[in-house]
Amino acid sequence: MAQRNYIYDKARQASQLFGYQEWDAPFIETIDLYAAKSGEELVKEQAFVFPDRGGDMITLRPELTPSLARMICQKQGELAFPLRWWSFGPFWRYERPQRGRSREFFQWNVDMLGVNSPEADAELITVAASFLKLVGLTPESATIFVNNRRLMDAQFDALGIPTEKRMDVSNSVDRRNKMDPAKWDAYVLETGLAQSQLDGLKQILGDYELWRKSDELVRLFKALEALGVKDYVKFDPNIMRGLLYYTGTVFEAFDVSGSVRRAILGGGRYDNLLRDVGGDPLSGVGFAMGDVVLGIILQEKGLIPHFVPAPASVLVTIFDESLWMNSYALAAELRRSGLNVVAYPEPAKLQKQFKYCDRMGISIAIVIGPDEAANGKVTVKDLKKGAQETLPSAEIEKVLRRILGAA
Fold first, then answer.
1. Of 283, 300, 298, 308, which Cα lies nearest the Cα of 407?
2. What pTM does this model have?
3. Deepest in the core among 138, 181, 367, 375, taking most CB within 10 A?
4. 285 and 394 share a domain?
5. Using DSSP, how many helices (H) and how many strands (E) does the chain show?
């Protein structure tokens, strides 16, 4: 939970830096919403689908973009565009649990709707790059690879690949780096391509200057340079993104210096999504990032901060049955002053209470014994330094802030 909250805090920080508003959607949706645009694999193989009591087929949400489209469609006349929204919440996919994959995960989603330009695409990529920087991933350790579906469609046109085969070909390109080259060749030929088309496809996938033929990508890279994140971004014709709704720029971020081969995040431009759920045409661009892969990468690189189990740094002890009200009253006073304070819930030996502090990562213990209570004083124990001082109760807040500020 602490690690997830850390990722959430950085996602929120990156989102708000660019003026995005937080929102969320229902956890349960009808499967028809996803069947329209998410792709056959996601709907038939990865979604948790079951009938409700009325017989309708519903699913635990496997992704967010179709829900976004429906919600925008319902309120399209009330919203101010361009719309910038972000969300962080739970999702479910029926996948084999393994390193980097979990059937339940949390996902950060960022979308801009109402603008159709490479500069808008660049802003989303910059949000992603800014997040990578916030969690300590440098351009040397993480790269955002970009491509463009319209550019690739033009190449498919030149190769004579029929429209009905392009999704299968795109999915095969997505799997290229995960397969043996000979097996991948055979896999692509099974989609119905001729050997000459396969040879042409491999030539295209090896052309890392191909982006210069796309006006959209030329403008994109100029915008990324102006935004100061070009070092994080490279063109890669092998990035396709299998979801049906992508129509222009697509991108994925990877750890390029560690052992994790799964994408950290991915997204792209979608120009027809609202039309498919009954809304007026509206362009959008967005990306999503799960917490599982990122968490593994941050742990591997030592970039996860040390989390203490307790969110408080101060514990007020209970000396004995006769003094618990004194301790509780002091704890309440300190909380009213804005300090996070734990009060031990029952009288116990002080050594037991100090041991609890140690196990919970609490650095300061406050003791009100008979002598302290009689003289209006408290004893503050700095458990990290092994030091203590007895002082008037009126000075306790100032002393605690001094100790905590120096920690």
1. 308
2. 0.82
3. 367
4. no
5. 15, 16
What's the one-letter identity of residue 140? Answer: E
Q: Which two tokens stand for residue 90?
A: 């739970």
CATH label of the domain that carries residue 377: 3.40.50.800
Q: How many domains does the chain have?
A: 2
Domain with 143 in it: 2-300
Give me the tens of pLDDT residue by residue for the chain, a chain 407 residues long. Answer: 788 899 999 999 999 999 999 999 999 988 887 776 555 556 667 888 888 898 888 889 988 888 888 888 888 889 999 999 999 999 998 877 778 788 999 999 999 999 999 999 999 999 999 999 999 999 999 999 999 999 999 999 999 999 888 888 888 888 888 889 999 999 999 989 999 999 999 999 999 999 999 999 999 999 999 999 999 999 999 998 866 678 999 999 999 998 888 999 999 998 877 776 667 788 899 999 999 999 999 999 999 887 766 678 899 999 999 999 999 999 999 999 999 999 999 999 999 999 999 988 899 999 999 999 999 999 999 998 999 999 999 999 999 998 887 55
Verify that 174 and 239 share a domain, yes or no.
yes
Residue of 25, 24, 49, 23 lying closest to 35 (CA atoms): 49
66 and 124 assigned to the same domain? yes
Instruction: Take residue 122 and report the two structure tokens written for it.
Output: 């660049």
Residue 191 near residue 128, CB atoms below 8 Å: no
Instruction: Output the CA angle 263-203-191, nearest 5 degrees.
Output: 70
Whether residue 143 contacts residue 153, with contact meaning beta carbons closer than 8 Å, is answered with no
Number of Cβ atoms within 10 Å of the Cβ of 280: 10
Encoded tokens for 299: 């742990």
Are residues 248 and 320 both part of a single domain?
Answer: no
Residue 237 lies in a domain: yes
- 151 and 203 fall within a common domain: yes
The token duo for 157 is 């046109």
40's CB contacts (< 8 A; 6+ apart) are none
Same domain, 289 and 354: no
254 close to 264: Cβ distance less than 8 angstroms? yes
H-helix or E-strand containing 298? helix 291-300
CA distance 149 to 143: 19
